[in-house]
Design a protein that fits this description.
Blueprint lengths: L2 H20 L10 E5 L29 E5 L15
Antiparallel strand pairs: 1-2
InterPro entries: DUF2282_membr
Pfam family, one: DUF2282
Keywords: Signal
Length: about 90
């Protein structure tokens, strides 16, 4: 390899190294979730209840035994939302 090709190779390697090193990655944490009872629509609950054994099988809106996962602090702001299992 002649001298000019070697310099070009080193220059490209340096640019790639600096370019990759200069990149940053932002990582976002998922919000903490809590169970909110009594607010789910029929067939939209997240987990089993006292009257059924599978997610999405509630038959009435606002079943007090069914919950959905919501970000912490949201349940108290929803009318009829309850953090305590009945």
């Amino acid at each position: 390899m002649n001298k000019s090709k070697r310099k070009l190779t080193y220059a490209l390697a340096a640019m790639l190294t600096l370019g990759v090193g200069g990149m940053t990655t932002t990582v976002y944490a998922a919000p903490a979730m809590e169970k909110c009872y009594g607010i789910s629509k029929a067939h939209h609950n997240d987990c089993a209840t006292a009257t059924n054994s599978c997610a999405g099988t509630t038959t009435v809106d606002r079943d007090p035994h069914a919950f959905i996962a919501v970000p912490v602090g949201v349940c108290q702001k929803i009318s009829g939302g309850n953090l305590d299992k009945p």
